[in-house]
Amino acid sequence: MDFRPARLAAMALIVLVTGCQLPAPQGNTSDRDRAAPAREAPQQVSTANQRLTQLAEPVRTDTALAWARYYLINDRAADAGELLDQVDDGNAQTQDQRYHWLRLRTQAWLAAQQPRRALELLDQRQATLNGFDAARQARMKLLRADALALDNQLLESLRQRVAVDALLDSDDQRYNRKLIWEALMSLPLETLESRSEEATGDLRGWMELALLYRDPQANIDAQVQRLNAWRETWQNHPAARQLPEMVGALQQAARERPQRVAVLLPESGPLAPAAEAIRDGMMTAFYSAEQAGNPTPDLRFYDVSGADMATLLQRAVDDGAQLVIGPLDKEKVAELAALGTPPVTVLALNYLDQGSRQAPLFQFGLAPEDEARQIAEQAWREGHRQAGVLYPHSEWGHRVSEAFISAWQDQGGQVVVESTFNDDDLGDTVKNLMATVRRHDGSAGRRTEYRPVRGDNMSFLFMVASPNQGRQLKPLLNFHYARNLPVYATSYIYDGTPAPRRDQDLDGVRFVDMPWVLYQDTRLHHLARETWPDGHGRYNRLFAMGLDAYRLQARLYLLRTVTGSDLPGVTGNLHLDGARLVRQSDWAEFRRGEPVPLPRFGGGADLDNNSFD
């Protein structure tokens, strides 16, 4: 579940603005004083302001409210805010006008992605809020909850939503409960677990429901059992009457899972070590389910080394396979795709460059491009608009950077500087990069700390680098007065083993990585160490991929049939885009040489998170 502030603001605007019935003009009015319909709002806000000066109260305020609503609906939050500030609630002569002014002004701040201004406004107008009837107070509390969520105060937003839910009408309840669930999917799992123990009433019920769904290690049978027990305990809970669709689909997914699964992996050749790690991950998940006394599928492994894919696939189907997992090699996946629609569902363990996006050929992997796109989306949500890009001079580095740049520019972002590096020219590369940036913002030649300003100059750097490269690049940035420049990186920056003395040079670098790497004290980790005491070294992430590949065999039905559903996995939060499984990783930051997990907008297996600075 990707909890996006921009989408939340848009939802709030659609649900609340369209339901906002503005007051009719009061008293006798001439044609000159009559409030203009929203569709007649002037194109230029300066014209609107001028025309407002020609109107008398209360028509002036009524007209301003109607035009502001028009601007908001047409994605012109700044214009709406300017118009509302011209008449403010001091001009409002009726309770209706005061309510609509306050509501629209709050929505304008939210649409402009300025939740703190919205919260300040609501706090300042508390006396006005207290004068509204119960229904209007409830709607304003819903807006406060939206503002809190946009301000990353998810727990406070959640409490507000749950508290106000019973006071809302049915339409607002549907909206509110959807956002309650998204917040529950986005809270750090440790926070959810600890706060559920102290929660009471409906809030506790919501948290317990979220916990049974979000357990990153739970077998689907255990989840169904816990859901049945939850329903018995919380028969009158709002979620029992309006169960989140993805939770309700668990039972059907358990019934639809395959009984026999064929796994196509190489046993020899260059990909054999990677395949072994994936196979070990799948077997660890299998043993975990077996130990819990839950049903497990019949797993059969087939060697694809040198095999003809058509022949091997037919052999698996003849053996009774209802689902095929693999192959791993991209060429083998392409060979399989070229055969046309397979007779059973296939979960390939790699992505096609130009492959089919239609079921049943699903594609799952650990594409660094997904991480690059996730970083672009997060940076945009944080208010960045101008980026720098630094990556290795290689085909792989170019591919990852292109994924970031494409996603960044699709949102409207600009790339101020783009630079490649080789291991023997890191110093000159960083020096030239910062010189280019300073020329761009007019500070060339200054030997002072670079001051990144969101929206005005390069406010962050997207860096693709290995741990050794990063340990040199970050100190070089500090040396060239860019210590305060936020640096975001892919998981390539971290080898998965804490090394505080070496990685202290990476302090301040934020990066994305899978929960399996960031949280290493779970029950599955202990089981993995007992089963595979030698570990899997550089293939540890592929081991995690095997864990999730096993879990996906029982959950593909849910991901296929329930729009917006996801799987909180050990590789990240997984959802379907067509037939491609997209992975949302977790966030961390190097502090004193160690990766410290950070909350993010998403519902992966984040087991021990702190707060964003």
- What is the CA-atom radius of gyration, in angstroms? 27 Å
The dominant shape is globular
Cα end-to-end separation: 23 Å
DSSP helix count?
A: 27
| Percent strand | 5-15%
Overall mean pLDDT = 86
Assembly type of the shown chains? Answer: single chain
Structural class by sheet pairing and helices = alpha/beta
**Tally of DSSP β-strands:** 15
* Helix proportion: 40-55%
Biggest sheet details:
7 strands, mixed
Uncertain runs with pLDDT below 50, 5 residues or more? 1-7, 9-19, 23-38, 601-613
Q: Strands across the major sheet, in which order? A: 7-6-8-9-10-14-15
Protein name: Penicillin-binding protein activator
Keywords: Membrane
Region (Disordered): 25-49
Pfam families: LppC
Secondary structure: elements and pairs:
Blueprint: H1 5-17, H2 45-52, H3 59-73, H4 77-87, H5 95-111, H6 115-124, H7 126-130, H8 134-150, H9 154-164, H10 170-186, H11 189-198, H12 201-214, H13 220-233, H14 238-241, H15 245-256, E1 260-265, H16 272-291, E2 298-303, H17 309-318, E3 323-325, H18 330-337, E4 345-348, E5 361-363, H19 368-381, E6 386-392, H20 395-410, E7 414-421, H21 426-441, E8 460-463, H22 467-479, E9 487-489, H23 500-503, E10 509-513, H24 515-518, H25 523-531, H26 540-552, H27 556-561, E11 567-568, E12 573-577, E13 580-584, E14 586-591, E15 594-598
Parallel strand pairs: 1-2, 1-3, 3-4, 4-5, 6-7, 6-8, 8-9, 9-10
Antiparallel strand pairs: 10-14, 11-12, 12-13, 14-15
Helix pairs in contact: 1-5, 1-8, 1-10, 3-4, 3-5, 4-5, 5-6, 5-8, 6-8, 8-9, 9-10, 10-12, 11-12, 12-13, 13-15, 16-25, 16-26, 19-20, 21-22
Pfam family, one: LppC
Protein name: Penicillin-binding protein activator
Organism: Alloalcanivorax gelatiniphagus
